[in-house]
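Methods: holo model generation. Sequences were used as deposited, without trimming of termini or removal of tags, and paired with ligand SMILES retrieved from the corresponding compound records. Each pair was processed once, and we did not select among multiple samples. The sequence and zinc ion SMILES for this entry were:
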Amino acid sequence: MTPTETVKFVHRLADLFPTFRYEAGTPDAWHKAGLAFVTPADASAAAINLARRQTFISLADLIGEIRRIRDERISAEPIPDPGTADPQLYKERVRAAVTRLGDGYGLGTHRALNAAPRRQGPPPAAYLQARGRTAEDETARAHRCPWPPCQAHPGASCVNPLGRPTAPHHARLVAAGLATPDTPGTLHPQLGTLPEELQ
Ligand SMILES: [Zn+2]
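and the model returned the structure below.
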């Protein structure tokens, strides 16, 4: 805020806070102590938030509330890739992006990195490994799980009795042509046999 905006803002505080007394030196002091670095919109929003829950206002409360508003805004958007390997420049660009986000300006992008061209075919081995899945699991996932208690849709993980993702059920492996139906009750080689009450 400019010094003039700060004067106007501090005057308005008397309407929001019955205990607030405008004094000639207040705008200048508050301006230097922090309000110079915030937008009029954030200062107003913070004052209104505070007025809802307290009848007095201090500069510390106000700055704290403004910081909370800014943090909320910053955490809602990814910081874009600074696009440099130079540590100093990297730091500067990240800081500038955080300031812009905090001030409420968009960065003109919702992506942390530039979008890569859409990959064709099955996911790479590293992707599967990181998720504890095998290429065989991926093939099975393309099919709907025919096991009645699960019936996971194509592309979705099979779920265990608690609804948590689990390795493809035996029936799904059979549907994908990866197993034979000669071992009824078997879920997956790693999972052993289905408990009798669930068969
Ligand atoms: Zn399943």
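The pocket of zinc ion is lined by residues 145, 147, 150, 152, 158, 169, 172 (CB under 6 Å).
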